[in-house]
Amino acid sequence: MNSTVSKQFIFIGGKPILAYTIDAFEKSSLIDKIVLVINEAEIEKCKKIIVNKYNYKKLMKIVPGGKERQNSVFNGLKVLPSETNLVAIHDGARFLITPDIIDRAVRDAYDSNGVIVAMPIQDTIKETNSNKIISKTFNRDRLWAAQTPQVFPYSIIMKAHEKAREDNFFGTDDASLVERLGYEVDIV
């Protein structure tokens, strides 16, 4: 998206994208608290155009983000109480999320090591070598595009992030951090 405005602050229908996202989590019957992780330079803007305007009841804290997405998630995890049961990690710019999808992911996560929302891949996916010669075509019937929220027991996702930091490993999503510890993550 070509814009000088961060995606989550773009207005659609008179409302910032992030406000729609927070609304879905506010309406979810299985979400107790919300921690917003925002670029430090945009925290005051977030408070002014979203937090102060919409009076969210579940908003616990606003935390400054990190250099990479993974650092930002870790910053959010660190402010949660250690007795936290489950954590739903969501990209604030993904505003089409619904309370029903959130609730389904959270419900499924109670009996697992983690759950991610995902969509089946419709495109054919190719792997190439360094010369851009196709070396493999994947069976798309078994491929999924990872989305958010990604929901995990707090103890597992915190351990996964701590281990990734220790190993200087950067995953493409939170599930990849959990997977590398040997845990199975489900798709919903």
From TrEMBL:
Native species: marine sediment metagenome
Keywords from the UniProt entry: Nucleotidyltransferase, Transferase
Database matches in InterPro entries: IspD (IPR001228), IspD/TarI (IPR034683), IspD/TarI_cytidylyltransf_bact (IPR050088), Nucleotide-diphossugar_trans (IPR029044)
PANTHER family listed in its UniProt record: 2-C-METHYL-D-ERYTHRITOL 4-PHOSPHATE CYTIDYLYLTRANSFERASE, CHLOROPLASTIC (PTHR32125)
Molecular function via GO: 2-C-methyl-D-erythritol 4-phosphate cytidylyltransferase activity
Name of the protein described by the UniProt record: 2-C-methyl-D-erythritol 4-phosphate cytidylyltransferase
One Pfam entry name: IspD
One of the GO biological process terms: isoprenoid biosynthetic process
Signal sequence extent: none
Secreted listed as a keyword: no
